[in-house]
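During the reporting period the student researcher (J.K.) took over the structure-prediction task from the postdoctoral fellow and processed the backlog of single-chain submissions. One of the processed entries is reproduced below for the supervisory committee.
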Amino acid sequence: MTGFLPENPGVIKVNQVAEIRRLHFVEKATVSELAKQFELSRPTIRKHLKTLDDPVYPLRKLQPHPKLGAFRDQLKSWLETDARLPVKRRRTAQRLFECLQAEGYAGGYCAVRRYVKAWKQAQSSSPPVTQAFVPLYFPPGETCQFDWSHETVVLDGVEQVVKVAQFRLTYSRQMFVIAYPRETQEMVLDAHNQAFDFFGGVPKRMVYDNLKTVVDAIFSGKDRQFNRRFLTLANHCLFEPIACTPESGWEKGQVEKQVCDIRSWLFTLTPKFDDFAGMNAWHTQRCRELTARAHPEQTSRTIADCFAEEQPLLMPVKAVFDGYVEQMRRVSSQCLIRIERNRYSVPAQWANQAVSVRTTANRIRMVADGQIIADHPRHFGRDQLICDPWHYLPVLEKKPGRCVMERHL
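J.K. obtained the following structure tokens:
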């Protein structure tokens, strides 16, 4: 039997079966000649001489993964560890594959994916739920989707949960993410300013959940009462706000998927930063780096290529929106205003009077008679005193013991 390859059911093709039968029955080629020509065993040739239908090969239920063998225990240990974590902090199969590569794994991703899928199915007794959706088409420059996510990071050595504003242009899939300590309205306004600056323009429509900082009231159908301050932002930037139907996340499915992807790409394992500025600078850099990935629909192009096409079609940003939230507060007799459990100083002449407080993502400004009378960096701790000694000069001129304060000036 020398000169013959071992039988391999995956080698034979439908057109080869037809050719074998034609050469034998029409050209009178012998079984040995056909075996040499097609590099198959003679029993295989005889079998296909009797074949009239398409060949059917049984599928293996268990795929051998020899390269994964030495890493199965490690992969199983990671899956068991992740199973005890909240769902949003568990690693995806892709992330586990990258971690295995760091350990020296030289195999393919499919082996890891099959193992992870089989392990999860073995842990779950209920069958997976499948849903069907209608594909959507988005012209370039038209639509951007927005959502919040909660992620775990280590800031200045302390593990904490941060709120991440996520934007996604639906045509190019260009993303932008920025983290804040809270989800308040001034954070929403600032996030839009940062996103439009990153994109270099404004899309015609913005799609949201019915979050309270954007929507004040939900009526029937798509009718909404949008927040007045948020509408000021929309009127300034000229985009149309669109609110999804409640509990219908598929209406902004791209950013919903991005939340899961970003969690895997940027927040597992738990990243460490010195402060929010360093974290957001790194996020911006990663958003640019991820544009080198292939576009999910236009697979021959990258996200960067599609964004280069979409960016000129965005509406230009003519002026940055002053994203503050305003409220009236009374100044105490100690020339202080309490804001979110912190106290900020105000010039002494405004003691016991009402002034306007304008809160932005990173500043606290006090306004009276149309003028800014105090401007402080915003603090997010509790029971802190943010004081400008110059605000107390008129008091020091009249009150005894002023020399004690003057030493601090």
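The committee noted the following: The longest strand covers residues 143-155.
J.K. will present the remaining backlog at the next meeting.
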